[in-house]
Specification:
mainly alpha, 390 residues, 0% strand, 14 helices
């Protein structure tokens, strides 16, 4: 199905709701880590592996599912992923122990990786070509909205009604998304090739592998920070649950603003946007290590971090559409795989560092990873279209 003559904005909103539900569920452990660990009788570092499990499965799903579903109607496939999201949240909410919780998170990873791998390619076909940037920005707003909800609202509601009830509410949100998708998504035939060989061919194009590695480092640094931001605020900054919720709300709002600012920044210079965000985040991480014990300074730096990161997914998706315009689904799968590997690495390594060196150690490592990513972008990333072999 080619891009439409008339935009299907209701279907774009349905895709946004799907992204919102998936990302909310993915990020909830970051705001509920402390009560989850206490209830299950495990360390916070071990509880953080719920993020790792989701990310590892999402990595595999983003690479394998586009090929596995073959010629299936993408509408049916996306609806199946949304149904899996509901089941995942219910399993986590009812989990009596870590193993069952991890099963729920594995199911989330499969839905997350598959949905994300196809979401940009599907959204691009719901509107005329001239409106694709607007449609993609609407879809990415679901990520920012989820960040606003999952962090501060998740931590606050977890304190009031318990972390299990928060996941039950997330299952209800996923049900709403499924209903809207069922009502609005048209039939969507697959397009282009989707297979492991195609993935290899895309990755072999000039500049793609280096770009994927740089993006992976940025997301690794960010999620090492984000997964353990609540324990850092509690142990280093010394704020209570009210302060944590307020700071995370500031992060979420700033992240949403950063997504909105990404468009004008990208119009000025894609490469400068790609470079400036990880450098700024790396410097902020070092700043938090230095003066993060001051609540006001910590709150401001966490908010600025959120704003900087808001532009990151939009910038890298824009880079991908400019460099691999002919294989949006396969290239999208590669980017999702890189991001999910980064989330798994950031959460896993961050948990190990946190259990030995605390929040200071995690944020220090995160900062150096982000600064390294900036150096890689300086060395080899260009905002040019990569030639497609005839």
């Amino acid at each position: 199905m080619p891009a439409r003559d008339k935009p299907a904005w209701d279907a774009v909103i349905a895709m946004t709701l799907g992204v919102f539900g998936l990302v909310t569920a993915e990020f909830l452990p970051a705001s509920l880590l402390t009560p989850m660990a206490a209830d299950l009788g495990i360390t916070e570092g071990l509880a953080g592996q719920a993020v790792t499990a989701t990310a590892l499965v999402a990595l595999a799903a983003s690479l394998l599912i586009p090929a596995a579903v073959g010629d299936l109607d993408r509408r049916v496939v996306l609806l199946a992923f949304s149904a899996m999201l509901i089941i995942s949240n219910l399993l986590v909410a009812l989990a009596p122990s870590l193993p069952l919780l991890l099963i729920g998170r594995v199911l989330l990873g499969a839905a997350l990786g598959g949905f994300w791998a196809m979401s940009a390619a599907v959204t691009m076909r719901l509107v005329p070509e001239a409106l694709v940037p607007r449609a993609l920005s609407i879809m990415f707003s679901g990520v920012s909205a989820a960040t606003i909800l999952a962090a501060p609202v998740g931590s606050y509601l977890g304190e009031v009604i318990g972390w299990r009830s928060v996941f039950l509410l997330t299952a209800v949100l996923a049900g709403v998304a499924l209903a809207v998708q069922f009502a609005t998504l048209p039939r969507i035939a697959p397009t282009g090739q989707a297979g492991l060989r195609t993935l290899g061919e895309v990755l072999a194009r000039p500049g793609i592998a280096l770009g994927m590695l740089a993006a992976m480092l940025i997301f690794t640094g960010h999620f090492a920070f984000f997964t353990y931001v609540r324990p850092f605020l509690e142990t280093v900054t010394g704020v209570g649950i009210g302060g944590v919720s307020g700071i995370l709300l500031g992060f979420g709002i700033a992240n949403f603003l950063g997504t909105l600012l990404a468009g004008p920044l990208l119009e000025r210079s894609l490469r400068m946007t790609l470079l400036s965000m990880p450098l700024l985040m790396g410097l902020l991480g070092l700043g938090l290590v230095t003066v993060g014990s001051e609540p006001a300074a910590g709150a401001v730096m966490v908010a600025i971090w959120g704003m900087a990161f808001g532009a990151v997914p939009v910038a890298w998706s824009t880079w991908l559409t400019r460099t691999v315009p002919d294989q949006a689904e396969s290239a999208g799968g590669l980017l999702v795989a890189a991001i999910q590997f980064a989330i798994a690495l950031g959460a896993a390594a961050g948990g190990a560092i946190f259990d030995t060196s605390g929040g200071i150690g995690v944020f220090t490592a995160s900062s150096f990873i982000l600064l390294l990513a900036g150096l890689m972008i300086v060395a080899g990333i260009r905002s040019r279209r990569v030639a497609v072999a005839a």
